[in-house]
Specification:
- By secondary structure, this protein is mainly alpha-helical.
- It has a two-stranded antiparallel sheet.
- The chain is 74% helix and 3% strand.
């Protein structure tokens, strides 16, 4: 997305100079780094206290990472325009594969339900 934005000239300027593209790049960077930190947190917890104790973090990252990937890829597709949905770039394949990943280990809704149940149990008196 960044490479395209820095090389695609349209409507009198580079895409990289457009505020909407800058916003997409900033949002994408923050979301990618946030998901990475959550992965590291889940991995650390698995290493230190075991998989069973890290179930909440594992479930959360399954939802967060897959959704972040789809959101960032959607922005990349928009940045590339029609070429983004063609097989001329890897973006369309990444989007197709990413969408399947949101179902592979159970749908987001199931993960969210278990996350919520575990969280709510912490607050039962």
């Amino acid at each position: 997305m960044c490479k395209r934005a820095n090389t695609r000239y349209t409507h009198g300027s580079l895409l990289a100079e457009k505020s909407v593209i800058q916003n997409w790049v900033a949002e994408s960077r923050m979301e990618i780094d946030s998901a990475r930190l959550m992965v590291l947190q889940a991995a650390w917890k698995m290493d230190t206290v075991g998989k069973k104790e890290a179930r909440q973090e594992i479930a959360m990252i399954k939802v967060i990472a897959a959704n972040m990937m789809m959101t960032v890829l959607d922005r990349a597709i928009q940045t590339f325009g029609a070429m983004g949905v063609s097989d001329d770039t890897p973006i369309a394949r990444m989007w197709r594969d990413g969408r399947a990943m949101r179902l592979a280990d159970g749908p987001d809704e199931v993960h969210k339900m278990t996350i919520a149940r575990r969280e709510l149990r912490k607050w039962q008196s």
